[in-house]
Amino acid sequence: MTGRYTGLVALVTGAASGIGAATVARLSAEGARVAALDLTPAPGADLDLRADVRDEEAVQAAVARTVDWGGRLDLVVTAAGVASYARAHTQTLDEWHRLLAVNLTGTFLVLREALPHLAHHRGAGVTVASLAGVRGFRYSAAYSASKGGVVALSRALAVEYAPAGVRVACVCPGSVDTPLKRGLAPVPDPDPALLAHGRALVDPPVARAEEIAAAIAYLGSSEARFATGTVLQIDGAASA
Ligand SMILES: NC(=O)c1ccc[n+]([C@@H]2O[C@H](COP(=O)([O-])OP(=O)(O)OC[C@H]3O[C@@H](n4cnc5c(N)ncnc54)[C@H](O)[C@@H]3O)[C@@H](O)[C@H]2O)c1
User: Fold this and answer.
1) Which residues contact 202 (CB under 8 A, 6 or more apart)?
2) How many domains does the chain have?
3) CATH code: domain of residue 195
4) Residue 143 catalytic?
């Protein structure tokens, strides 16, 4: 393992589980000091921050605490997220708002607070969107809208902050074997044709969280100097 992150400080949201937890482990193994932000404890992180990404004051406090603790901020990874399936014509407004608030507004709040600190050290933000944010996905109108927003937000920030030396990149995983994926309740009586749509072509048709974390670690590193505004799909040819 290379020490691409030796001496650097990272903040990872959604760090207690799945892709976020794998990212904490990967960045730590590469030498970073890692602050973890989640609703629940994140074992393995150097600094464990409890916050809801929807809560503006809590996010401000968590980013400030990270910089106080680490003395700098070089990388922010926004992996906190929630998902649910629904037929669009039965989608409740409450659930629509919940997915948009956590996935999109939460990503915005964390990046907004981090950007001035990232600019001090030519740092980077890596967002976690989804294949559902770049292509049509069944029973996922709210989730897709939230993740499409994350893709657009990432591109906009990449352009706006390039002159300040801050890179912003986005990963769009297909199906990843995590508690989120395993816990998703299907819609009743799904259409088999729609279930086949967007399936990965590799065997097994799901990624491991560590495989997504490896891509995040590349995009956040100095090796990825030219990779800003990048939207990296990792989906087993589901969208090829
Ligand atoms: N698993 C997949 O198939 C898949 C595919 C594409 C994209 N993604 C995205 O990857 C990201 C990570 O997903 P995962 O599969 O690792 O899920 P996960 O459920 O394993 O982990 C998500 C973490 O986010 C935290 N979280 C949720 N709401 C939060 C909030 N309001 N504030 C702070 N933390 C909160 C949870 O506590 C959890 O620890 C999500 O944004 C998800 O949408 C997942």
Assistant:
1) 236, 237
2) 1
3) 3.40.50.720
4) yes
Distance, first Cα to last Cα, the chain: 30
Nearest protein Cα to ligand 1, atom 31:
52
Which residue is associated with the tokens 């503006």? 56
Residues 183-206 pLDDT 10s = 999 999 999 999 888 899 999 999
C-alpha 118/C-alpha 106 separation (Å) is 18
Query: What residue type is 101 in one-letter code?
Result: A
CB 155 within 8 A of CB 231: yes
For residue 35, what pLDDT is reported?
98
Pairing of strands 33-38, 167-173: unpaired
Domain limits for position 196: 9-234
Closest CA to 15 of 28, 4, 2: 28
Instruction: For ligand 1, pick from 11, 12, 13, 19 the residue to mutate: most ligand atoms within 8 Å of CB.
Output: 19
pLDDT, tens digit, for every residue of 64-97?
999 999 999 999 999 999 999 999 999 999 999 9
Q: Three-state SS for 31?
A: coil
